[in-house]
Amino acid sequence: MSYFSELALQFIDGEWRGGSGSWDIVDFNPYNGEKLASITVATVEEVDAAYRAAERAQPQWGATNPYARRAVFERALRIIEDREKELTETIIAECGGTHVKAGFELHLAKEFLREAVQLALRPEGRVLPSPVDGKENRLYRLPVGVVGVISPFNFPFLLSLKSVAPALALGNAVVLKPHQNTPICGGGLVARIFQEAGLPAGLLNVVVTDIAEIGDALIEHPVPKVISFTGSDRVGRHVATVAAAHFKRTVLELGGNSALVVLDDADLDYAVDAAVFSRFVHQGQVCMAANRVLVDRAVEREFTEKFVAKVETLKVGDPADPTTHIGPLINEGQAEAITALVDQTITGGATALVRGRTEGTLVGPTVLSGVPEGAAILGQEVFGPVVTLIPFDGDDEAVRIANDTDYGLSGAVHTGDIERGVRFAQRVHTGMIHVNDSTVHDEPIVPFGGEKHSGLGRLNGESMIEDFTTTKWISIQYGRSQFPF
């Protein structure tokens, strides 16, 4: 089943329709360059139409019994389970994801839908005492109304659903803008699944467009009360600035520069496996990926030998081949930027223990050591299959190095002493960190988010109620208040 031809459209107010812009977004397979779809961009007028449709549909949905809302998500989950093969093929073709990546993304997507089923029943009101005689204070949890969602290209199906499903479950309507490199996985597929699951028209709208066409219309529009954005910190800063100027709430899940730390008592074979996965899953195009692997100097030599040997076994190539570990980056521009960064770092004095070749969008894994302190690669998010190995002497120096970045999303520490690992983890300035595991984790009920430039707010579980509902205070005076005039 080809999703590309049938979903290469805008989805507004329950209807699939072409955009009215003057140019097309062309969707390419990043591995072989095949044209998958061509979508005429949505204009400012279509963004307005999407938001107005959401605004009209939301009140009735918000008043719908949450048990009835829950049934939509149960049906959506069954649709994903029934079509997992076709969805896997679509993720591989549009994202360049390997079979492992596609399986990981779909597994988590199903888990988050299961959580949305429960989330519909989760909001609770409260009755609070009052110092005023005869008064009762009631607090109600209500939908915010309409939520704008902007999703990225790396895990587009999952990361769209992560905001879309809970926002809808809590009684809101949504306008979703997927990344222009993944308009089907991040937009059309999500809309089609919910449409078939029986979601009423207007509650989920998808606009495929670009800032070159609409500017900041998606953020500035008066209808949405919350903007949920996942992407780079550079764009996130702009989204936050524009949203704040229009008194909108934001949930920002941004970049990372995570460190995986190997202490001197770690299980080295296990740490190597965790580190290789943490860096090279989905070609390193993961916000939680371990850009930096920090190794205690006491075990540096042994770890490095084992790590390099493992990396050299990784197969680079066609993501449709189940034996492939590393597929293409999302486009040639990204491949060129990663290659230039590696060249710059080596010229600056670093040593390449493994140097991957670049062929089009395929970039082989690169392992760097001896990177000079202050090198650009150490302080930024690296969205590709490149890792730096950094030695340290003792836990205090490891903490200093791990924290020497503007980001604070994820991390990991490996040690034979669990409580030592927990003490270490508490000192690292991240929103998430894992003892004796990889840096790449996401679970439906655990707050997901970062510190510093890695974002604002949290997603998942109870955090979604904070993000996508508002609190309303209604007081009742059963007696008579006394007024001074």
Number of strands: 24
Q: Helix segment count?
A: 17
Major sheet details: 7 strands, mixed
Shape: globular
- Structural class by SSE content: alpha/beta
Query: How many angstroms separate the termini?
Result: 74 Å
Report the radius of gyration as a whole number of Å.
24 Å
Strand order of the largest sheet: 14-17-18-13-12-20-21
Oligomerization state: single chain
Fraction of residues in helices? 25-40%
Instruction: Report mean pLDDT, rounded to a whole number.
Output: 96
Poorly predicted residue ranges:
none
Strand content: 15-25%
Structure write-up:
This protein is α/β, with parallel strands linked by helices. It contains 17 helices and 24 strands. Helix 3 packs antiparallel against helix 5 and helix 4 crosses helix 5 (99-119). The protein is globular, with a radius of gyration of 24 Å. The chain starts with a helix and ends in an 8-residue tail after the last strand. The mean pLDDT is 96.
Helices, strands, pairings?
Layout (H helix, E strand, L loop, with lengths): L2 H4 L3 E3 L2 E3 L6 E5 L6 E6 L3 H19 L3 H17 L1 H12 L3 H21 L6 E3 L6 E9 L2 E5 L5 H14 L3 E5 L5 H14 L7 E3 L4 H4 L2 H4 L5 E5 L2 H13 L3 E5 L4 E5 L5 H13 L9 E7 L3 H12 L20 H16 L3 E4 L3 E2 L2 E2 L2 E4 L6 H4 L6 E7 L2 H9 L3 E2 L2 E4 L3 H9 L7 E2 L15 E2 L2 E2 L5 H7 E9 L8
Parallel strand pairs: 7-8, 7-10, 8-9, 10-11, 12-13, 12-20, 13-18, 17-18, 20-21
Antiparallel strand pairs: 1-2, 3-4, 5-6, 6-24, 11-23, 14-17, 15-16, 19-22
